[in-house]
Amino acid sequence: MAASLRSVGRNGIGSHAFCVFTASRYVSALLGEEMTENEELTREIGLLADRAEGDPETGVDIKALAVGLWASFNEFSIEEIEDALRDAWRMRGLAFNDNAGN
């Protein structure tokens, strides 16, 4: 885990993302659960979206969040992670800043 997501998002989602990610991997290991990288990324995005639901009017910077996640999930492209984040945020009706193409 090279980087924390401490600076991502205006509503503090990133401030806890690294800790949640690390804890979820630790708990999975303790329980003997083996997850694919895709399942782990999906779970992490779900946890971040859960946190974002606490303040649904405040958007996050999808690009910055994707770059932060890429530090732990570099087998996916940043664009793939951005797409997954956009899908999760749209499904929940959450606000986000989409910097795609910038």
Q: How does this model look, in words?
A:
The chain is built from 4 helices and 2 strands. The longest helix has 18 residues, at 13-30. 26% of the residues are buried. The protein has 102 residues and is mainly alpha-helical. Helices cover 57% and strands 4% of the residues. Mean pLDDT is 75; it is low at 1-20.
% residues in beta strands: under 5%
Ranges where pLDDT stays below 50 over 5 or more residues in a row are: 1-20
Largest sheet: 2 strands, parallel
Helix content: 55-70%
| Structural class by helix and strand composition | mainly alpha
Describe how the helices and strands are arranged.
Layout: H1 13-30, H2 37-52, E1 60-61, H3 62-70, H4 78-92, E2 96-97
Parallel strand pairs: 1-2
Record keyword descriptors for this entry.
single chain; 102 residues; mainly alpha; 2 strands; globular; disordered N terminus
Would you summarize the structure shown here?
The protein has 102 residues and is mostly helical. The chain has four helices and two strands, in the order ααβααβ.
